[in-house]
Q: What sequence folds into this?
């Protein structure tokens, strides 16, 4: 059995508490109790609660966006001006996020709930990370979609991609479809979620603009 370091215990405990109760209810005292450590250890490893939250998000999101970026670069062979298949672009953006649900090493369903709460509660930490670290990759996907959908104005692509990200976040948070998930094997439900969301996204981007 692997023994977790104090830092890992603190990160895992913080992740679990956010998933269960949200960001507003999170306190250093609750984290220390959950992680079976003291306040000094949290301050030593992270400095303050905000830095701790940042690291909880970063340790999962860094890997997610690296996988997305690699998949997109594999498609366009490193040439951002090369037109790629729309469905493959969307697969590269959507599938890695949903794969995390079944990967406990990437936080699994617990982190999916954290991410859903971060969006719902408009977490400043998530907003800052998206703006400073991950926006360039998101823009790469938006540009790839623009090349694949020359019939759509950039503003239309912005809005539709925005709504696709919202649908993906909803799915990652396991909202709405839980009753259906109980009616089929977990692997089948997961694979169907990936496929249906990609097809939903393709349909939204192939419809001509109303303008």
A:
């Amino acid at each position: 059995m692997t023994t977790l370091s104090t830092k890992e215990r603190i990160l895992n405990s913080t992740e679990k508490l956010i998933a269960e109760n949200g960001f507003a209810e999170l306190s250093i005292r609750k984290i220390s109790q959950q992680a079976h450590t003291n306040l000094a250890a949290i301050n030593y490893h992270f400095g303050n609660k905000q830095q701790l939250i940042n690291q909880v998000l970063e340790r999962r999101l860094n890997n997610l966006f690296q996988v997305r970026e690699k998949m997109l670069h594999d498609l366009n062979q490193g040439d951002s001006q090369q037109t790629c298949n729309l469905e493959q672009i969307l697969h590269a953006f959507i599938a890695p996020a949903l794969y995390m649900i079944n990967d406990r090493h990437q936080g699994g369903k617990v982190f999916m709930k954290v991410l859903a709460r971060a969006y719902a509660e408009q977490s400043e930490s998530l907003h800052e990370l998206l703006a400073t670290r991950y926006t360039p990759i998101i823009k790469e996907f938006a540009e790839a979609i623009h090349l694949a959908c020359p019939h759509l104005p950039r503003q239309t692509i912005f809005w539709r991609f925005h709504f696709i990200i919202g649908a993906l976040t909803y799915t990652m948070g396991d909202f709405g479809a839980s009753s259906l998930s109980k009616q089929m094997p977990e692997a089948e439900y997961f694979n169907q979620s990936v496929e249906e969301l990609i097809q939903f996204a393709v349909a939204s981007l192939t419809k001509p603009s109303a303008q």
